[in-house]
Amino acid sequence: MSNADVNLDELQLDLKNPRFDGLDNQREALQKIVQSQGTKLVNLAEDIVENGLSPAHRMLVAKATGKGNFGYIVLDGNRRLAALRVLANPAVLDGMTGVGDLTIQKLRRLAKDFSLDAIQPIDVYVCKSESDARHWIEAIHTGENDGRGVVSWDGIATARYRGKNTSLKVLEFVKAAGKLTESELAALERFPITNLDRLLATPEIRELLGLTLEGGDLLSDLPQAELIRPLKKVVNDIASKTITVGQLKGKDDRLKYVNSLKAALPDLSRRTGTPEPLDRLAAHANTKGMSKASPAAKARSLLDRKALIPGQAQTPLNINDQKLQQMCRELRKLPLDTYPVSVAASFRVFLELSLDHYGAEKKVKDYNVDLPLKKKVEVVTAGLQLNGASKRDLQAFRALASNPNAALSIDRLHGVIHSRYALPTASELRTGWAEVQVAFTKIWE
C-alpha cells in the first residue's frame, strides 16, 4: 500500500459495494447511496463542509482496471465519495427517485458553502488489489473483532474525552470514598454512565442527594459519610442493573426510584453551608491514611496542588536512582494546568522506570524489563502484596493495567504518546495521582 494525492474526478464508486446487491453503473451507485443514507449523508456532507476530510480515516482505493475504466475504485469510503460528488455538483441530484425532498434541499444548500479546492488533492491509500485491502476493510466495518478492529469507547471514556461531566465526578467520588469490594469495582468496568446522567440532570434529585450544580461542577456541603451513602447506593444499583434505563426514562420514574432509597438518603439537616466540588472531596477521601505525612499535610487536598506529585513532606518517595530523582523533581514542579501533555508523557516514563527499578531491586518473581507495561504493573502489584502492601491499597494501581477508564491507565498513557487526539486534562492527572500515590510510596519506601 502507498499513499497518493488524487482529484475528485479520478475516483469511482465501487460497483461491488457490499452495502448493495449488484450495481450496474456510477449513476445507480450514487443514487443508491443517497437513497439509503438520507439524513446520515446530509450529516456527513455537513461535516465535510465544516471540517474537511478526516486525516485519521483516508479512503482505500485500487487502480481501476478493464476497458473504459480510469482512475481509482474506492474500496472503502464510498459514502464520503458520494457526499463529495453531490457537494461538488448538486445537479447530480436532478431526477433522483426515492430521495426525500428535504434531503435534496439540505444537500443543495450545503453545496453552496462547499469549496472543492479546500479538499483537493485528496489523500488516499492505494492498494494493489481488493484482496490487499480486505483485512483493513473488515477491521473498520465488522466490529471490534476481539480488539483487532475499531474498539468503540464506552460511555465513561467518551465522558472523559469530552471533558467536564457530573456523572464522572460522582463515579470518582464513589471509587475514592465508597470502600468498594472487588466485585463492585469490577461492575464499574462497563458502567452505563448515561443512566446516571439522567438522574443528575434532574434538579429535584440533586437536592435529595445533597448535591448542587454550579458552573457545570457538582458540589456538596454534606459530611462525607452522609454523601457517600446515597451515591454509593445509586452507583451500585446502576452498575448491577438493579435499576435500568427503562425505570429512569421519565422524571416521575426517576423521582420514584430515588425516594425509594429511604434510609440511604442523606440527612440534609447536617449540611455545613460550605460546599466543595466533588472532585476535591474525592481527593480528600483518597489521601486518608495514604502516607505518613503530618496531619496538616494530610488535610491539604491533593487537588489544590499545582504539580502532579506533591512535595516530599506530603508524599515521601525515597528514590535512590539519579535519573528517577530528576524526573520526580520535575514532576513535583511542572505546573499541571500549563503542561498537562508533558506531565502525562513524563509520568508514563516515570512509571515504567519505577517498575523496572522495583522489579530488579526486589527480585520480583517473573519480572523482566521486556514485559509489556501492563504486565509489568500486574507483576509488580503482586510483588508489592507479597511484601506486605494491602490488596485494597493497591486496587487503583492494579487498575492501571485492567481498567482503560482509570485516569492514569496504561491505555490512556499510550494514547498521550501515540495518538494525536488524546489530550489529558490537569484535573484527571491530579485525580489519577491521588488514586495511585499509595502504591508509589510502597515502591519507593
UniProtKB/TrEMBL annotation:
Domain of life: Bacteria
Name by which UniProt lists this protein: ParB/Sulfiredoxin domain-containing protein
Organism annotation: Kinneretia aquatilis
Top-level taxonomy: Bacteria, Pseudomonadati, Pseudomonadota, Betaproteobacteria, Burkholderiales
